[in-house]
Specification:
Number of strands: 16
Cofactor: Mg(2+)
Low-confidence stretches: 106-115
Mean pLDDT: 91
Strand order of the largest sheet: 1-8-7-3-4-5-6-2
Number of domains: 2
Radius of gyration: 21 Å
Number of helices: 16
Shape: globular
Strand content: 15-25%
InterPro entries: PEP-util_enz_mobile_dom, PEP-utilizing_PTS_enzyme, PEP_util_C, Phosphohistidine_dom_sf, Pyrv/PenolPyrv_kinase-like_dom, Pyrv_kinase-like_dom_sf
Protein name: PEP-binding protein
Family: Belongs to the PEP-utilizing enzyme family.
CATH superfamily of the largest domain: Phosphoenolpyruvate-binding domains
Keywords: Kinase, Magnesium, Metal-binding, Transferase
Length: 407
């Protein structure tokens, strides 16, 4: 077995081109290990964030767990399922050749060259996509250019993973459970706010837990089995049907206001998985948000692209272009399915045209707009898209931009 090389496909990179570690084939966290799993799922969150790298047998470039790894700078290498059984003991990952050597290898620890990294000036009003509190601290400890990061964006479901919360179980309980969930989210947000620099803010993407992901983090609440969860009951559609979530949100907002006063305004809310302006208006009314609470919108479906001007007119405080989902819906290529990886193209002309339409419509309406970009795509977007108000990037890739500019 020693010296055998297993060829794979790199889903996310890191800061080293070669690294070595002990394989962890359990679901339990083992600091500094190489986590080996058939696929990445929410139930593996603690094991993933403790790992030095991850090797899996399935998944795409921009799945939710892969996005957490990208944000933390944890490399993810996909190999054939049949090769997973051979990954035991000490292994060495060669990220540049996208391969794994089983057995001893003296090359561990080489650095990746950082050529082609843009300047922070190119990012405009930069937004860091985070998975937990550590990501804020990582950015804000990166030197003077950390202040160029105007906001931090987090999904509520990622906040729940980091805090050990089970949102659907809480929301399916009684009023006390619902209120406890709202207070727990507020507690976590207060902790995050303490780590911000004076002019920074936090954007919370409201709960968007697909049924397949929910099943992995739910013990009590019933979860429907859907034939295609990606296109199922989640995002704005689910929020519109949940009075329990509305009540929890009000507890969360009230707790923030009580504890933080005017600093509660540094937490902004954003609507996920939105079709059009009608859903936006309906959801704002359903959530019974006070008039002084801004609500932004995620543009990540073709329907929302064409409704951008109307969504701005309906009162969206700002727009976030979620290119990862936009790509899969424009091209009908599941971003988590490696079998259609060649069809999932983040620079496809149709995708570029859609993003261009959103930016132009938002700028015409005077609504701030930010575009998510993978590090590998940023230069391409900078060259070919009209200038948005800012770009969103995962923590590790954004930190590279900050550190490179100060070296």
């Amino acid at each position: 077995m020693n010296g055998r090389r297993i060829q794979g496909f790199l889903l996310t990179g890191g800061t080293q081109s070669v690294l070595r570690g002990t394989c962890n084939r359990t679901r339990s966290p083992l600091d500094g290990s190489i986590l080996v799993a058939p696929s990445l799922e929410a139930g593996l969150y603690e094991a993933i964030v403790a790992a030095r790298a991850v090797v899996c047998g399935a998944g795409g470039l921009t799945g939710h767990m892969q996005s957490i790894c990208r944000g933390r700078g944890i490399p993810v290498l996909r190999v054939d399922q049949a090769d997973l059984a051979d990954l035991v003991g000490e292994v060495t990952l060669h990220l540049e050749s996208q391969s794994i050597v089983v057995g001893s290898d003296p090359r561990a620890g080489e650095r990746i060259a950082g050529d082609g990294i843009p300047s922070p000036d190119d990012l405009g009003s930069a937004c860091a996509v985070i998975a937990d509190l550590q990501d804020i601290r990582t950015i804000n400890s990166s030197g003077p250019n950390a202040k160029r990061v105007e906001s931090f964006f987090i999904r509520e479901e990622f906040l729940c993973l980091a805090a050990g919360l089970r949102p659907l179980d809480s929301l399916d309980g009684g009023p006390a459970d619902i209120a406890a969930y709202g207070r727990a989210v507020a507690d976590r947000l207060c902790t995050y706010l303490e780590a911000l620099l004076p002019d920074q803010r936090l954007v919370l993407r409201l709960l968007d837990l697909r049924s397949d992901h929910a099943a992995g983090v739910t013990e009590l609440a019933p979860v429907a089995v859907e034939p295609n969860p990606e296109l199922g009951l989640h995002g704005a559609r689910w929020l519109l049907g949940s009075t329990a979530y509305r009540d929890a949100l009000h507890v969360m907002l009230g707790s923030l206001r009580e504890r933080l006063g005017d600093d509660a305004d540094r937490v902004h809310l954003s609507v996920p998985f939105l079709n059009d302006e009608e859903e936006f208006v309906q959801l704002r009314a359903h959530l019974e948000l006070p008039a002084d609470v801004p609500l932004s919108a995620f543009i990540e479906m073709p329907a929302a692209v064409h409704a951008t001007a109307a969504i701005c007119a309906a009162g969206a405080s700002e727009l976030f272009v979620g290119t990862k989902d936009l790509v899969q819906f424009y091209l009908a290529a599941d971003r988590s399915n490696h079998l259609v990886a060649d069809s999932y193209q983040t620079r496809h002309p149709a995708v570029m045209d859609g993003v261009r339409r959103v930016v132009e419509a938002a700028r015409a309406a005077g609504t701030p707009v930010r575009v998510f970009a993978l590090g590998a795509d940023l230069a391409h977007y900078l060259e070919r898209l009209p200038t948005p108000d800012g770009y969103m990037m995962c923590t590790a890739e954004l930190q590279q931009v900050i550190l490179r500019s100060q070296s």
